Amino acid sequence: MFILVNLKTYPCDPVAVAEAVRDVDESTDVARVAVAPQATHLERVAETGAETWAQHVDPIDYGSNTGHTLAETVADAGAVGTLINHSERRLKLADVDGAVEAADRAGLETVVCANNPAQIGAAAALEPDAVAVEPPELIGTGTPVSQADPEIVEGAVAAAANVDSDVSVLCGAGISTGDDVVAAGELGSEGVLLASGVAKADDPTAALSDLVDPL
Amino acid sequence: MFILVNLKTYPCDPVAVAEAVRDVDESTDVARVAVAPQATHLERVAETGAETWAQHVDPIDYGSNTGHTLAETVADAGAVGTLINHSERRLKLADVDGAVEAADRAGLETVVCANNPAQIGAAAALEPDAVAVEPPELIGTGTPVSQADPEIVEGAVAAAANVDSDVSVLCGAGISTGDDVVAAGELGSEGVLLASGVAKADDPTAALSDLVDPL
Amino acid sequence: MFILVNLKTYPCDPVAVAEAVRDVDESTDVARVAVAPQATHLERVAETGAETWAQHVDPIDYGSNTGHTLAETVADAGAVGTLINHSERRLKLADVDGAVEAADRAGLETVVCANNPAQIGAAAALEPDAVAVEPPELIGTGTPVSQADPEIVEGAVAAAANVDSDVSVLCGAGISTGDDVVAAGELGSEGVLLASGVAKADDPTAALSDLVDPL
Amino acid sequence: MFILVNLKTYPCDPVAVAEAVRDVDESTDVARVAVAPQATHLERVAETGAETWAQHVDPIDYGSNTGHTLAETVADAGAVGTLINHSERRLKLADVDGAVEAADRAGLETVVCANNPAQIGAAAALEPDAVAVEPPELIGTGTPVSQADPEIVEGAVAAAANVDSDVSVLCGAGISTGDDVVAAGELGSEGVLLASGVAKADDPTAALSDLVDPL
């Protein structure tokens, strides 16, 4: 299972979480664990040795793009992948396409987020490495999508497979325990997006270990 | 072939163009001809008897949506279909999905526009009635997409078929003659989007007749 | 006092409300009453003789603007004014400026909406005919801004006067009774924006008469 | 004069430019020179000792804001100020207001950009530390705004003074020589925004020295 810890703009210490991510990733063979800090923290987080992802890249190239996030800059900072179209950073359809292209050009792995199976099919058609289904209404609730809405995960897996069987499916929203991760896997998900459960934990290493333990 | 004349915000007489659309549509068995006026003109255009389409609907329901276009209002005005995500009115991926749903709810036929085959596949995954590929760089050039970039039309047809074989493919950009329409059909397109060639013609009926004639 | 009834995308009969607006407007010397229907309803509403406003215009000119609202089209349909930047249809700063210019060009009166006194000052600097302060958190609550947050109305009046003393100030959010309208006037407001209280009333004429009565 | 070098997403070495900015700033009493790198480069640039600015901050607080730029993060990275509403990163009016508030909260100095005197007045009403007028059509042309359109700079100075005399006015677009900077000052501008002229120079220190020399 791929476990991606999204730090959003939480008031956490990104380096401390990154070190926990790195340590748990190195301690297990059953999960690949990565962290997505804010753009400003990418370099420091990558220096920890943790697998580092961006939270967003813009559909742009080098040039006159004040205030935007360039895929090449993110990659040079040490990121190996990027989220695109997270529900907190939704993009126009043409810009999701452009952002996937920009990330590919910079050698970044891509996970395009979407709300439901129809949009997951659409996201898969843009040929990212993976898609992630996150029902917005469950984000931050503590109620895992795998329990509250298992059909949406299965539907997302089917929708992506119908369009492009090479695209992996992740899921997110409300996942906080290892059992949630196991349940997500049983529904066909190859990974999960996590946020507050780890980012806000007093002991991120313990929180991550608990998540990985039942795998 | 389906021929949809998009009046954009051109300074044309929408009723005169609509009457031409109606007359040519009634005079031929080989084409279905419709017109997409501005929202403010929908009622008057529909009253001509021409098949009337909206240029856009928003992903909303009845309620507190000042300044938005409600699918039900468009349908009540006499429209039978709507464009969604035209390159001049691009939407977020989640909102393309929401607009298709809103249009379905109101009984409107849907054509989702996109720029290239990858986005056409994405659009098709949202289950509209049709998708339309329009390379933005050719819009308004007079150089037909079927001639300038035939691969993009064939690619769009293949991309849509891969995702959902029930979704028709239209194409647009630069189409101004009957030969262009024929060429579009030969590439697998089931219709075309037209704009200035008819909307700005001195004699819209003659312009449309010329388009339909070689079919 | 200027009373503008915003029909949003409510499931009301726009012509029936417009007739009530017209009748109450004609029956009183102490208020000017107008109605802002959806773009698709502008022509039919204007035909009632009611003073008709648009809910939104785009910062565009005639041309290739599929799915946009052109100020000239709105004016030709019989509208005499337009809201701009309503909290349900917020625009970029440059586009508020462009929309005011477009409305001026088409001879439309302009009311630019904003959330707080600072933004009201900003809106006034763009030289609309009026600005309207509507705290988003009070919209639709039934708690009038004049009662819940009188300082915001007084602050808006002061902010607009500091920038351009020719710009009138309206207020909105939660206004449903004649006493609310009187209170708004006492705080320096020259008008009010109303919505559900009239649009959803069983008897819009009675609802409007009650509003005007205490003036 | 304040000289702010905006690195946009240019393919330059941000640290090398920052060192030039620092050195020239330290070598002169007549100018204050600062640099605005991409968010990902803020920490490394600030470590050079150069005065560091962000290119953008979002109107957000700590929390669930994936892919956004938090003012506090920017400040913690060593930035002392931020551009807001650059013409390449235009914001909604309410979000310009929110971004100024967010920057104030984090102790960042603020420069709100706008296209013309009317928008400069609007920007000034939001109480930033400064506003910057940059006619979009001149950006990147090499034709300085002070020469191509001196009225726009004088108009901006007057518009800002009318609203809030505490707000400084900068100008930008096409400035590449020391004479351009002098001319901007003579029109009432207290600083300039620069980009490619320094960021893409073979010798940024020489380019900056030439700019500062005639002051």
TrEMBL record, chains A, B, C, D:
<dbReference type="InterPro" id="IPR035990">
    <property type="entry name" value="TIM_sf"/>
</dbReference>
<feature type="active site" description="Electrophile">
    <location>
        <position position="86"/>
    </location>
</feature>
<comment type="function">
    <text>Involved in the gluconeogenesis. Catalyzes stereospecifically the conversion of dihydroxyacetone phosphate (DHAP) to D-glyceraldehyde-3-phosphate (G3P).</text>
</comment>
<comment type="similarity">
    <text>Belongs to the triosephosphate isomerase family.</text>
</comment>
<dbReference type="GO" id="GO:0006096">
    <property type="term" value="P:glycolytic process"/>
</dbReference>
<keyword id="KW-0312">Gluconeogenesis</keyword>
<feature type="binding site">
    <location>
        <begin position="195"/>
        <end position="196"/>
    </location>
    <ligand>
        <name>substrate</name>
    </ligand>
</feature>
<comment type="pathway">
    <text>Carbohydrate biosynthesis; gluconeogenesis.</text>
</comment>
<comment type="pathway">
    <text>Carbohydrate degradation; glycolysis; D-glyceraldehyde 3-phosphate from glycerone phosphate: step 1/1.</text>
</comment>
<dbReference type="InterPro" id="IPR000652">
    <property type="entry name" value="Triosephosphate_isomerase"/>
</dbReference>
<dbReference type="InterPro" id="IPR022891">
    <property type="entry name" value="Triosephosphate_isomerase_arc"/>
</dbReference>
<feature type="binding site">
    <location>
        <position position="139"/>
    </location>
    <ligand>
        <name>substrate</name>
    </ligand>
</feature>
<feature type="active site" description="Proton acceptor">
    <location>
        <position position="134"/>
    </location>
</feature>
<feature type="binding site">
    <location>
        <position position="174"/>
    </location>
    <ligand>
        <name>substrate</name>
    </ligand>
</feature>
<keyword id="KW-0413">Isomerase</keyword>
<dbReference type="GO" id="GO:0006094">
    <property type="term" value="P:gluconeogenesis"/>
</dbReference>
<dbReference type="GO" id="GO:0005737">
    <property type="term" value="C:cytoplasm"/>
</dbReference>
<feature type="binding site">
    <location>
        <begin position="6"/>
        <end position="8"/>
    </location>
    <ligand>
        <name>substrate</name>
    </ligand>
</feature>
<comment type="subunit">
    <text>Homotetramer; dimer of dimers.</text>
</comment>
<dbReference type="InterPro" id="IPR013785">
    <property type="entry name" value="Aldolase_TIM"/>
</dbReference>
<dbReference type="InterPro" id="IPR020861">
    <property type="entry name" value="Triosephosphate_isomerase_AS"/>
</dbReference>
<protein>
    <recommendedName>
        <fullName>Triosephosphate isomerase</fullName>
        <ecNumber>5.3.1.1</ecNumber>
    </recommendedName>
</protein>
<keyword id="KW-0963">Cytoplasm</keyword>
<keyword id="KW-0324">Glycolysis</keyword>
<dbReference type="GO" id="GO:0004807">
    <property type="term" value="F:triose-phosphate isomerase activity"/>
</dbReference>
<dbReference type="Pfam" id="PF00121">
    <property type="entry name" value="TIM"/>
</dbReference>
